[in-house]
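Case study.
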Amino acid sequence: MAKITLDNLAHSYLSHPRGPQDYALKKTTHVWDDGEAYALLGSSGCGKTTLLNIISGLLIPSQGRILFNETDVTDAPTAERNIAQVFQFPVVYDTMSVRDNLAFPLRNRGASTSYIEGRVQEIAKLIGLENELGRKARGLTADVKQKISLGRGLVREDVNAILFDEPLTVIDPQMKWELRTQLKTLHNELGHTMIYVTHDQTEALSFADKVVVMSEGQVVQIGTPEELFEAPAHTFVGFFIGSPGMNLLEARLDGTKAIIGDTEIGLPAHFDDPVGKVQIGVRPEYTKLASSGGLPVKILRVEDVGRHKIVRTEYFGNIINVIAGESAEIGADMTQVVFDPARVNVYVDNWRVQGGAQ
Amino acid sequence: MTLVLENVSSRPGGRVLIQPIDLTLENGTMNVLLGPTGSGKTELMRLMAGLDTPRSGRILWHGDDVTGKRVQDRGVAMVYQQFINYPSMTVYDNIASPMRLLGQSSSEVDAAVREAAEMMRLSDMLDRKPLELSGGQQQRCALARALVKNAGLVLLDEPLANLDYKLREELRVEIPRIFEESGSIFVYATTEPEEALLLGGNTATLWEGRVTQFGPTPEVYRRPVDATTAKVFSDPPMNFLPMTKEADKMYFGDGQVSDAQGTLAGLDDGEYLAGFRANHVALEQHTETAMKYTSRLVVTEITGSETFIHLECCGQHWFGLINGVHDLTLGEKISVWLDIRHIYVFTEDGKLVAPAAYAMAA
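After joint prediction, the assembly is written out as follows.
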């Protein structure tokens, strides 16, 4: 297992990049701790796959170095990096049994028969396939095949890291729960350094100790799910994390208040009036409907999502989403939105600013 | 305008065998087909479209029998999971292509293309090629091509499955709006309960080639007719535990007891299966009548807004979905509470005998 250092890493697919816009991965320096689970989260084209390919050795970066512990592996081929990978689609040998599929990476490395037997048994139990070991992989459903792929990724104890590239894409929602649980249990029990690439925030947040949010080739924030939810460093993170994302409204600051139109909104701290575009950001989870004391809005629609309701409202062309309880009554007089002052974030030119003492 | 399926079943040899189905889709309705992969959603759509001929039964369109009619001769449009556009044509020509095939005049085509593009927010992109668009825009182009024909029946087969999470979120809000503007019958296949709920309209739940229930979406969600429907329409999966009714008492799992009140009072004595959803599991005693369960915490997943907890309790695997962030120690025993009002009662073979009391009030 290894600590992974990204040292001034950058990559352009062009041979003569002219500016930052030509870089799929802009200059990045980070140290990722040994034994932690990281998720790289962003939409397509954000650079997450480029970064993963640099880590796995499929791509040599145009600039910078990558280190596993203290060893520079920037130019090392994939085979020498001692990593395991799990891809979007199951990679399984159909003609082999489940047992032989799981044993394959160990046999390749010349492990002893008795070790292989014990280890395969152990992994099969973790992925819930201990009774299927004798079966041929052919004819198994996509989710069982993907379980085998996961198991094969995890079977070697000596890998530096395990990389996952959108591993649950082909899996039905309800099976995702089972596979995610297994992955999480495996991480808790085996303690490998894991890197998981996805565009799906639920997968990223629920899997990772730390989520690396990427946009336009840049790492915008690295944080725990709680940090990304409560205090997004950038409006993009506010928008991208959460479903629906954070409500963002342009405002004027006045000490411990933000002012929108005629409405004063309480802030958690004191803010000096800054230079630049000022916005406040509040999660729909911390936004309520009320009959008075808030921002007057028009209710566009109420969506019943089962466990809660999403109320879509509009304030002078700005959409403000409110999350209300499953059995909440939305009365006709509930035409104002109220924010929880403790949960209001302030952004200047899209970056979060910290307030001072009141 | 209606689409009626009378006792329609599919021929053997397909991937999933559709069991005889009766279904009436009214004009101007959104109809979701919800079920896991392999439950027959695509097969059912192919029957509706006329791409497959049923083994039994009839398909009526505005009252006319169209069972053997070719797909080209029906007013049907279909959108697939993979965005299908002509890569060498502009967005404009892509959208125009179905109308040109029908031999309409260029002024008619132009008006319809611009209207469909406006609805799909593609007006500024008509001169571009599909591959110069984002995934969401490419799928909107495919949707525009489906809508431009003004087909009475629009079939969408997991149209958002290949899109990024955030784009999916955006189009899920847009599709009901587009549907309302079009006035057609929409049929929308998905594997995701949350997507069905966001789309609203009606939902047909599918399981192994069978429609288990069809009705207004929130009603199917809160009043599933059987345990299979409840499972198909729960994400996280529905939790279960055995229950015994004896006189005016009900005994759950580990010996928790509750009075049999309301709809539960009339139940025959005997063995049942109790079901409840993950979001109704509580970490504190939230009501006086809540029952306490001691469970083992297997895994927690924190998303920032919510904490998913995976529990072992009463010999079952349970999921809990709790608001906010909770730091809990794995492997420890924790207490969870469950209110009788949130419990659905099924017979041992899965037929609903009493819906959850809260759902009756909702």
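Observations recorded in class. Chain A touches chain B through 44 residues (CB under 8 Å). The radius of gyration of chain A is 24 Å. We will return to this complex in the next lecture.
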